[in-house]
Structure formats: C-alpha cells, structure tokens
Amino acid sequence: MQAPAKLRSATRRVPLGELRVLEPACGPGIYLSHFGPGSVGLDSNQEACSGAEAKGLDIRGCDLDKEGWSAAVDGDPPWQAAWLCDVLMHVADPAAFLAELTPTLAPGAPVLCVEWCLPNPGLFAGLRRFLCMRMPGMSAILSEPTHLRTYHLGEIEALLQCAGLRVEATWLHSFEGKPLARIAEFLTRSFWPVRTILARKA
Q: What does CATH list as the number for 5-201?
C-alpha cells in the first residue's frame, strides 16, 4: 500500500522507513506500517489497537492524557524518530505530553509533527483567518468533538521548543509533487491550514 501523501512528503526529508519510530495515537496503523523495523504505535482505542495488531504491527494500549503514559515504552531503546500526526489537537495537555515524549528519544532524533493550524496573529490576520476557514476540511476539523484545540503555528513551535526540541523546518505537504508547487505554496503559505513541522531533539 502506498504511503499517505503527508508521510511521503516527510520521508523526502527524514528516512522514516529506515528508523525505529514511535507513533503516539497511531490509530489502525496507516502510518506505522511504513516505518522501520522495531517501530511501535500507541493508542487508547481498543478497536484501533486490534486492527493494527491484525496487520502484525506492534501497538500498545496507552492513554496519552494520563501522566506516566511513557511507561508503555519502558525498556525499549531510545527512539530514533517520532511521528505525531494530528496528535496535539487531541491531547488535553500538549505541554505535558511533549515533556514526557522528549526523554524517550535518542539525541538528535527527528520529530515530525503534522497539524491543522490557524494563521498566526499579525498583519492582515483577519483576512488570513477568513481564507484559512474556507479551506477544504477546516470546518470539519473545528467541529470534530475529539479535537480539543486548534493552534496557531507559532504556538506549536513554542510547545516543541519548550519540550527541548529544536524546530528546523515547516512546509505545506499538500502541494509537494504537484505542478507549480512552489508557486502555490508561496501564495498560500500565510493561511493554508495543514502543515508539517520538523523538530529535533537537542
């Protein structure tokens, strides 16, 4: 099965298919199946866990909202990378979650964070928010009851930095591989909601 577009975009920068990746909130393992040997997924949904296990994936039951969630990976070697796809919008305390994630990572380990973001405040913020809210899928993201919060990009970068992660790059994966991708990204970067952030453990 071909990897989803956002994962293909990430692997152009980080060889996730060759690394031991920790994927919190992995769901049925759509991404987990594309990571390197020894990768592990965490999820609190028993149905999702069962589906991933049926695929032969290593998935462990874990509630990311509970202090001490990282005990689910106690005894494992430090992770070579982490994949966080739409995770921060689901956890009640993202700062606590990230603070617990960082010690499980090897030095220099990349963290790929994919999130739906509102435009940062500043010049023309009203116009940028207006355009953002009209992007495909944004209204569904905001109305989904399991999504506890939608962040500004600057807020996500600050959360990652406070957890001891160095932000290296941010990009719009929606356009990669498409005609006129660079022009499209240039024109929409200030308001396009879904993006990927690459951070790394110091």
A: 3.40.50.150
